[in-house]
Amino acid sequence: MTKRRIKVATMAISASLLLGSCGNSEPEDVNTVDLTDTLTEEFDVDLFESPEMDYHLPSPLQVASIFKKSGLEYNSGVTNPADNAGNYSAELSQMLNFGVYSADMAYCVLNEQANEGRIYLGAISSLAGEIGMEAVFANEDLMDRFDANIENKDSIEILMIDIHERTEEYMEENDMQHSSAVHFAGAWTEGMYLGVFDYENNGGKDGLGAQITEQMAILGNIIKGLKDPRNDGMELGWVITDLEAIQSKFDGFASVTSYYEDETAEELVLSDNEYSELGELIKALRTKIING
């Protein structure tokens, strides 16, 4: 497969408050997600190699924003019910669904469903207490700020970025960075599921299909993060196996092969059958994760 350099955009609310380490990527052109007062920094990275550096993952808000800008609609009832949070008793299940609920919260907020988003903030806080990150949400200012700004979408987005920053800082201070890949495996799967659901049920979303393929560019980093030796005791084998099956299925598609063999190709578009095959694998993994 011919490797192609992909330009990656990271977004920031201010020069010192980054939304995530690595942003959305898109062949040839750079399209950043519109947030209030964002700054954009661009850099080149080869997403099809495994550089000798730490893996980088975006935030759940970034993933949801990528789909939102392509026309993803809000579908009531498609997210993982917040009531399920109490069903997750195993550490791995709690960590994966911490990521799932983070993606669900971002999905609600970006679609101006702030009341639903607040419910998911409660679910995230509950799971954080179970996985040893209660300090991130111990300060009541998060809920107070959410309530005070519940009608202000931009302020709620900034609050979500603050939550992401607090989580990253806490994990770094407590030598838990390796766990971020587990959280993000859940968030990525849920984000992809929401995109697949919208693509299959609402129709007329050519741009959404392109964003689904775009998300595949970061899957390798998720798998790399899950394989961190410090995660060895978490029984991640089935998660890694299923994610690798998704990656292998995608890489084997005729549309993908043709795209990377054609240096003049500007956009990768899967066939309906390819989208269906990819979607079935994503839905199957998501079912395993939310059923705990």
Global mean pLDDT: 76
Instruction: Kindly state the percentage of residues in helix.
Output: 55-70%
DSSP summary, beta strand count: 4
The stretches of 5 or more residues where confidence is low (pLDDT under 50) are 1-55
Distinct helical segment count = 12
Amino- and carboxy-terminal Cα gap: 36 Å
**Main sheet specs:** 4 strands, antiparallel
Number of domains: 1
Strand content: 5-15%
How does the helix and strand content classify structurally? alpha+beta
Question: What do you see in this structure?
Answer:
With 292 residues, the protein is of the alpha+beta class. The protein has one domain (6-290). It has twelve helices and four strands; from the N terminus they run ββββαααααααααααα. It has helices spanning 60-68, 91-110, 114-130, 134-137, 141-148, 153-173, 180-202, 206-215, 219-226, 237-251, 254-261, 272-290; strands spanning 6-14, 17-18, 25-26, 39-45. Strands 1, 2, 3 and 4 form a four-stranded antiparallel β-sheet that branches. α1 (60-68) crosses α2 (91-110). The chain is globular and about 55 Å long. It starts with 5 loop residues before the first strand and ends with a helix.
